[in-house]
Specification:
Its EC number is 2.7.7.59, 3.1.4.-. Its cofactor is Mg(2+). It comes from Streptomyces lutosisoli. Keywords: Hydrolase, Magnesium, Multifunctional enzyme, Nucleotidyltransferase, Repeat, Transferase. It is a single chain. It contains 31 helices and 15 strands. The chain is an alpha+beta fold. The strands form three sheets. An eight-stranded antiparallel β-sheet has the order 8-9-11-10-14-15-13-12. A four-stranded mixed β-sheet has the order 3-2-1-4, with helices on both faces. The chain is globular, with a radius of gyration of 34 Å.
Amino acid sequence: MTSTDMRTEAEDSGPSGYAAARLRLLQEGARSGPPRRAALAELTDDWLTGLFTAGSEGLRGVSLVAVGGYGRGELSPRSDLDLLLLHDGSDSGAVAALADRIWYPVWDLGLALDHSVRTPAEARKTAGEDLKVQLGLLDARHLAGDLGLTAGLRTAVLADWRNQAPKRLPELQELCAERAERQGELQYLLEPDLKEARGGLRDATALRAVAASWLADAPREGLADARRRLLDVRDALHLTTGRATDRLALQEQDQVAAELGLLDADTLLRQVYEAARVVSYASDVTWREVGRVLRSRAVRPRLRAMLGGGAKPAAERSPLAEGVVEMDGEVVLARAARPERDHVLPLRAAAAAAQAGLPLSLHAVRRMAAAARPLPTPWPAEAREQLVTLLGSGRPTIEVWEALEAEGLITRLLPDWERVRCRPQRNAVHIWTVDRHLIETAVRASELARRVGRPDLLLVASLLHDIGKGWPGDHSVAGEIIARDVAARIGFDRADVAVLATLVRHHLLLIDTATRRDLEDPATVRSVAEAVGSQGTLELLHALTEADALATGPAAWSSWRGSLVADLVKRVSAVLAGDAPEEPEDVAPTAEQERLAIEAFRTGGPVLALRAQTESVDADAGPTSDDPEPLGVELLIAVPDQPGVLPAVAGVLAMHRLTVRTAELRALDLPDGVGQVEGSVLLLNWRVAAEYGSLPQAARLRADLVRALDGSLDITARLAERDAAYPRRRGTIAPPPRVTVASAASRHATVIEVRAHDAPGLLHRIGRALEDANVRVRSMHVSTLGANAVDAFYVTGTKGAPLPGEEAASVARALEETLRA
């Protein structure tokens, strides 16, 4: 059925005809995007015109006006109908009756309606008081009735907007900033609001309003296409959910991608991010221009008065670098600059802008992009130095980098960047896309540059450490290959290329080892020393580890993690200096441990002691503080040796919402008066932290532990109740747990690594499974990032030796099956 046939059906059959024609249009597979939105708007126009005509016979001085998105002729499947019934005020009773004859059929069909009834004077007054009303009226479009009335209002509203622009545009900018603060950046969110988030449809509408003011205009290249892409995604979202929603929730992304004919949800998000980035960059440039124009208007009368009404003075130009000057608060090209001959100019201009903390002029970036020629391979030394200067400029680097990227200069300089550009990271720990994370890491690394001997290598490694995420397989392995190629291309010598490749390959080594391995085990320290190779590389890797974690998100770094990494670095440094790590010996119990063990044996029950642990930040690693940050609480437990101690303790701690960070378990034999073993006591030394609130009293922990050990406290049931009460996100499914054996990780124990969704009682379940497998846990190292737990358990057989290979694999399989159940 053609659009004409649909309109005829809608006009002939009233509301039911319109509903059928609307449904048919939305189900048409051949039409989508702008043609479908325009057709839906046209179909709706004809239906509403029919309602207006039928109800307004003999009535003069009335018109029906579409405003907002409907005024622009862009109707998504579940969009509101924004309507204004405009009248001259001569017969308000008849106008009210007409309004009912239009609004009620719309409501009867279940369509959302944003409506108003006003005279032109009332409409202008309301617009003057409410910026959102004014923005809607800027897109006013006549539907039916008195065309002259509508045209007069449009002319007056546009004139008001242009006359009041110096006052209203700052108000609009503040409104956009407040919305961005609430909704976040569309180009980084895993569940973005396509309309309200920064870089979304609201911002695109704001840019149209700025253009209508004639005060400034947005960069037009790519903006219309970006807006169309966001509207297409919203259409697909409305069709797949059947709801008027703008939030692209995780559980709907695959369906929306399929509706749009895209490969998968990641492809969908990447397209959304690319569109949002265009809108965000256009907004930055536009609001900067608005500010410049308004400042110029404020200053010009005073300058003219001072100069006696003479000609406008030339803008002052301050040199920043060869071919680069500052003018009017922006970095522009000097008059003598020749970007078609000066290959290094884009990097030099970017470095100068970042160093000065100024934005790069849009005109300058576009001129350089149009004239840019590839740099020779390897790059000249100046180009490499300017890249390092740009990366080391701190927070201003981000805005300058985005300006280069918006015009395609980054991918010309670094072709491998294309694979990580706008690439989403489906991990709640990460708050940025891959490319933005890399720049954030460089920014963080610039703050640590004084700690290393080669800050240039630190900054470039920060830029490249996750570059392999655009390729299949382990991103560290792929990244090493790419880093070698990029480092050689930009002019580093062979030795520096090798260091950069090592840093990229092992950028997760320190944090993973420190949080998941026993640092007292010489095998752990030796393996890290062999991978790193030199003191200089270790120093760089330490700084890169911290910068990477800080740039990931709040959950990725803490004083506790920092202290573990620093401890590992200290031990590895000693090995690299020639000091072989000593084999661990049975350390004599401390006086406190011995006292607790004797008391536990004497009473036949558990004995607990809590002790706060704090540590000041090392002077070489950052600023010190008189009030050191707590690293957790040391929990010492002594209990007569018996089965089920580990799951019982883990379960009680989970019940009291205590997060376990590390745990060590050892058996202590207590001699009698003649040197014989009188009994054995288990000593557990755990570091814990309160999930929220204050720590429970030791007496309460002990009472619950006693009940757990004697079987009167059903921990499994209690934790199941808590798990059932936890809020669940609809549609989010955690990947299955994975249990592996870390080969050659220790000479003294078998290391079993568990990766699973973090949940209350996870350690309790693991402890029970290991008890059932008849293995003893010597120590465990717990690492939780967001919703993911990565825990390493050092286990031995009943005689204290590592498990044979087949037995270790069997234990790992059984544990994985238990966790999957």
